Structure formats: structure tokens, C-alpha cells
Amino acid sequence: MTRRQMLRMIGMAGSGALMYQAMTGLGFAKESPYRPPPPLAGSGNGQSVLILGAGLAGLVAAYELGKAGYKVQVLEYNQRLGGRNWTLRGGDLYTELGGHTQRCQFDEGQYFNPGPWRIPYHHHGVLDYCRQLGVALEPFVQLNHNAYFHRRDAFGGKPQRIREVKADFNGGVAELLAKATSTGRLDDLVTKEDREILLEAMREWGGLNRDFSYAAGPVSNDYRGYARDAGGGAHGKPDFSTPVGLHDVLNARLWGNLAASDQYEYQTTMMQPVGGMDAIGKAFGREVGSHVRYGAKVVDIAQDSAGVSVAYEDTKAPGSRHVAKADWCVCTIPLSILSQIPVQVGAAMAAAISAVPYAASNKVGIQFSRRFWEEDDAIYGGVSFSDLPIGMMSYPSHGFGTKKGVLLASYTFFVEALEFTALDPAERIRAALEYGKQIHPQYADTYENGMAVAWHRSPFTLGCFGNWSDQMREKHYADLCAMDGRIVLAGEHASYLPAWQEGAILSSLSAIDQVHRRALAGGRA
Predict the structure, then answer these.
(1) Kind of pairing between the strands at 148-150 and 382-386
(2) 3-state class of 91 per DSSP?
(3) What is the sign, positive or negative, of the torsion defined by CA atoms of 197, 198, 203, 205?
(4) CB 112 within 8 Å of CB 451
(5) What does the pLDDT look like over 180-226, one tens digit per residue?
(6) CA distances in angstroms from 49 to 70, 250, 334, 393, 486, listed in the order given
(7) 87: closest CA among 277, 274, 271?
(8) How much is the average pLDDT of 224-239?
(9) Do 520 and 46 meet the contact criterion of CB atoms below 8 Å apart?
């Protein structure tokens, strides 16, 4: 079985988060090696650079090359900055392929991030540019022990608290291991001294009592929670909850998402920009926005020994044709789009551009009239996982205690995402509501409006992210990232951090370094 096949099966059986976990384990998602770049040696001496795309890769290129003295021009398809760094708010319009137009009806102060929505603490590039540009950050709650695990065939379809599943799984395994240790079954594996330490470790980790059993009582309930919490007065004594046996925990298979927040990419602390992810793109815009031509649809990219020539159309005047020229070009257009544009590059880069498929993903954001997840279920931020086609839902990590909120009601990949993509936006929202009611019945009485973004219907990406396989990387990755004449590519697809903003930033720094070195050498390779 190939890694790609394995990831597809994981995506079908689990969720987008589970797929990302697998990507991490298989080496697709790694720590960012970013360090703040030193000032580019020498000067651009007025040489010109044409940047295609104003996502984070393009914005970083414009920002850094502009500081080095290059004349920078950016062509951007959308009427905004950021690319997939995108936030929807009330009044926004979004038209997807097929012609369906959605008008966002969220209340003032409410928002939804259709693209990136969280930043790991070790994505040093994103965080450094946030510091440089004054983008305020706040905690993003990835793990909430009071959120839910849910499977249709487990516990009668009733959602289970993450803390209960985690405590029962750990407690059952700890008891099993403690019994094996105390009866001498591990004598060939651990020393006598280590056995004693191991038993104490299992007692502490698994919430076992003095008899090394995982049973109802104050020890286990300090992990899984009480049936009735401690209170004051004559009736303040807590009631113990009853742990679920290991056999039932294993067969419920809710443990499938237990490691979600232990994986490196999702460990605390995670962050988000205050007010929406597009705060990053807007901050770059204050530095380089005057160099951006919006509504520019690139239709042809050519080069010769003297420079680069890019033909583009004005999206507000279909059929119009303009030409932009420069000494160099940093192209950040997603490969799903770029592979459909005539590009004058060598056979190796052309083959690489055409080789990489893009993963499917779908997100649905829904505004509710009250924060029932907080008021009724005591869930403040975090993610709930389900085997329903909605994949997972995420509760807002901001605005705690306020009246309304926008819930990420569905986040899917692969087959489930394609099924959602086949529906029109209104049907996607209805589907998310119907499935979501199985976890939160309050949906029926509190729904107000929603937005649905299926990334394969996004006209500026035609997919979510570059879905490399090991075989494709071995064959094409070096050719994709190498400079071809006066053109170099950048974007998350040109990184080992696919789908992350950090990958886009790191690829951009590599690309502009190549441009700068070539420019200093007078255009010689």
C-alpha cells in the first residue's frame, strides 16, 4: 500500500485532522526550519520582479524584495490580499465555479476562516512576520477535554466527552499493564527496580486506585469527571461516574482520534490572529499593497534572456488583455491553476507543474443565535470529532460568554469533501445541519445562517493543497523548486509543509534567495 493510498483510507475512515496526523507521522508535516532572514546582501539596484499571486508566498516575496531595492509588481486574481489566508464576514460575496454566489450574513464581529484557521507554536515564520507587522495573536483551543468524540455505532450514537474516553482508555491500558507487571509477565523485559517505578507510573497515569484497578471512585473521577460535581451545602457531596471497561472502549473505536492533539502539529500552544486569519494578509497589505494589481487573471507566462512577460486579463472586463514585464518572476500560482496556463519553462519544470494533484476539502461555517455549546454543554473552544460525513466541528476560541457565535460545523477531506463539493452551497449547509443535530440537537432551534466553501470549486485554487506522494517528490520536487531561467515558483506546494502557511513562507524565502543570487550574478545561473 502506498502512503497516498493509506492517507486516502484514513481520510475516508476518520477526518481531516486524522489525515494530517498521518501526514505528520509519515514525514509530510515537519517542524519549520525558519530563522529570521538576514537583509539580502547587495541591492536590487532597481531591477524589477513580477510576483504572480498575493497569497502569503507572494506577499513575503514582495515585502522582502521591496526592502532589498527591487521594483516589485504583484498580479492578484482576487480583489483582496491573502489567497487562502481568507476570512469571511457579514456583507462579503463569494462566487464559486458553477456560478453559485453566497452573501455572508454573519453579524458584525462574527467571522469564519475558510482556509487556514490555526498556527502551531513552532511555525516560526508565520509568527515572526506577525511580530514584525504587528498582528495581534490569541490562543486557539485545539484540545478541549469537554468536547466530544462521536461514532454512529458507539454508545447508541450518543456523543462521549473526550475526557471520559481518554481516561477510560488510559485507565484500562494502565490496569492491564499493571496486572501484567505485578504477576511477573514482564520479568524478562524490565528489572525489578523498573517494575516498581512502572507500577507507580501506571497508577498515576491511568488513575488507578490502591489495588491498581481502574474503578469508580475519587481517583478515576479526577480524570474522567464526576456524575455530579462537588458543591456546597448539605448536598455538596459529589457522585462518582462509572468508568467504561476496556473491552467496550476498544470496540467503540472512539480512541481513533485520541492522539489528535498529541501530534506535533497540534500540540499546545496554537494561536490565531485576533479578529480573523486575514489580519496577516492585511498587515502585509499595509506594506506592499500599493504594488498589487487586483483582478488580474494570468493567461500566459513567457520569458527570454532579457526578462519575463506575463499576459493577464482584467476580471472586471473579460476579454481584455494586458501585459506586465519584469527582469524576474516569482510565481506563486497554485499548480492546479498554473498547469492550465501556458508557461515558457523547460520540460522538467513543466512536468513537475503538471504532476501534483490537489486534495479536496470542504468547510461549512454556521452562525447560531446563542452559544449553546457553552451555555448547555460547557464547551469553550476545541474540536469535536465524528464519523459522520461532516468530519469534525470546531468551537470558536474567542468571544467566550457572548450571545452569538460562528461554529465551524464541518471540515472534511477526500471522499466526504467531494460529496459535499457536489452539492450547491445551500445544500452543503443543510447537510451540515442535519448531521450536526446528531451531536448538538440545539442546531434546530438556533440556526441563523451559514457559508460553505468547497475548495475544488474555488476559482483561484481548484483544490485545497498540493497532495504530494513520496514518489512524486523524488521525481519532481527538485525541478519544481529550481529556478528556470528567470522564473522561480513558490507556495505551500513548493515545501515539505503542505497546506500550512509556514510552507508558503519558507518556499518564498527560498525563491527570493534564488532570484537575488541570480540578479547579483548578472543573470547567470
Answers:
(1) parallel
(2) coil
(3) positive
(4) yes
(5) 999 999 999 999 999 999 999 999 999 999 999 999 999 999 999 99
(6) 7, 58, 19, 42, 10
(7) 277
(8) 96
(9) no
Q: What is the pLDDT of residue 27?
A: 41
What is the mean predicted confidence (pLDDT) over 488-507?
97
The number of CA neighbours under 13 Å toward the Cβ of 77 is: 18
Least confident of 1-15, 178-192, 319-333: 1-15
Closest CA to 86 of 522, 517, 464: 464
Minimal CA–CA distance to 14: which of 253, 308, 269? Answer: 253
Write down the pTM of the prediction.
0.92
User: What is the DSSP pairing of strand 328-331 with strand 292-293?
Assistant: unpaired
> Which amino acid, residue 318?
P
Residue pair 266/120 in contact by the 8 Å Cβ criterion: yes
Residue 524 main-chain phi, psi, to 5 deg = -85, 145
CA 122 to chain centre: 14
C-alpha 491/C-alpha 362 separation (Å) is 20
For residue range 403-444, list pLDDT tens digits in order: 999 999 999 999 999 999 999 999 999 999 999 999 999 999
Query: CA dist 455 to 375, 460, 465, 466, Å?
Result: 33, 9, 9, 12
Report the distance separating Cα 443 and Cα 368, nearest Å.
Answer: 8
Q: Answer left, alpha or beta for residue 391, where phi above 0 means left and psi between -120 and 50 means alpha.
A: left
- How far is residue 296's CA from residue 311's CA, in Å, rounded to a whole number? 9
- Let me know: does 220 contact 249? Beta carbons within 8 Å: no
At 276, the amino acid letter reads G
Q: Are the C-beta atoms of residues 230 and 238 closer than 8 Å to each other?
A: yes
**Which 3 state secondary structure label does DSSP give 413?**
strand
Strand partners, 50: 73, 329
Name the residue among 495, 517, 521, 523 with its Cα closest to residue 508.
Answer: 495
Is the bond preceding residue 268 a cis peptide, omega within 30 degrees?
no
d(CA 228, CA 237): 8
> What would the DSSP string read from start to end of 448-477?
EEEEEEEGGG-TTTSSSSB---HHHIIIII
Q: Which three cell numbers stand for residue 376?
A: 448547555
